[in-house]
Amino acid sequence: MALSGRSLLIGTSWVPLLVHLLVLRTVGRYEGWGAWAAAPLFIPGIVLSAGMALAGAALFLRRQQRANIDVVLLAATALAGSVAGYYLVRVFVVTLAT
Questions:
Q1: Burial 12-39 (b: 16+ CB within 10 A, else e)
Q2: Torsion-angle region of residue 68: left (phi > 0), alpha (psi -120 to 50) or beta?
Q3: Selection from 13, 22, 21, 25 nearest residue 49 by Cα
Q4: What whole-number distance in Å separates Cα of residue 36 and Cα of residue 57?
Q5: Long-range contacts: 42-46, Cβ < 8 Å, 24+?
Q6: How many other C-beta atoms can be found within 10 angstroms of the C-beta atom of residue 3?
Q7: pLDDT in tens, 6-52
Q8: CA nearest 79: which of 40, 42, 52?
Q9: Measured between alpha carbons, how far is residue 30 from residues 35, 38, 41, 46, 73 in Å?
Q10: Residue 1's pLDDT is what?
Q11: With 0-12 CB in 10 A as exposed, 13-18 as middle and 19+ as buried, what is 66?
Q12: Over the chain, what HEC string results?
């Protein structure tokens, strides 16, 4: 059985969110400067989320040219990119607020 990019993305779309939740739990154990020192632990989850979102968008656009809208792939892409999207929106809100 061949493993396609679509099935791989759908099967692993929850991984960036799990990584982010584990990092939140880890960083939450520290106080003060310790939390600031542990903050770079967020970077791999954000990068993974952004990469999976870009890969999902490419797969979605390629599949949309051949067939109808693939709702499952679209939902998996949104779930995989949710961590990167959250921090992207947060940066814009903080930038506009100051």
A1: ebeebbebbeebeeebeeeeeeeeeeee
A2: beta
A3: 13
A4: 33
A5: 42/87, 44/19, 45/16, 45/19, 45/20, 45/83, 46/20, 46/83, 46/84, 46/87
A6: 8
A7: 899 999 999 999 999 999 999 999 888 888 898 899 999 999 999 99
A8: 52
A9: 5, 8, 13, 20, 37
A10: 56
A11: exposed
A12: CCCCHHHHHHHHCCHHHHHHHHHHHHHHCCCCHHHHHHHHHHHHHHHHHHHHHHHHHHHHHHHHHHCCCCHHHHHHHHHHCHHHHHHHHHHHHHHHHC
What residue has token string 């679509």?
6
pTM over 0.90: no
Amino acid at 67: A
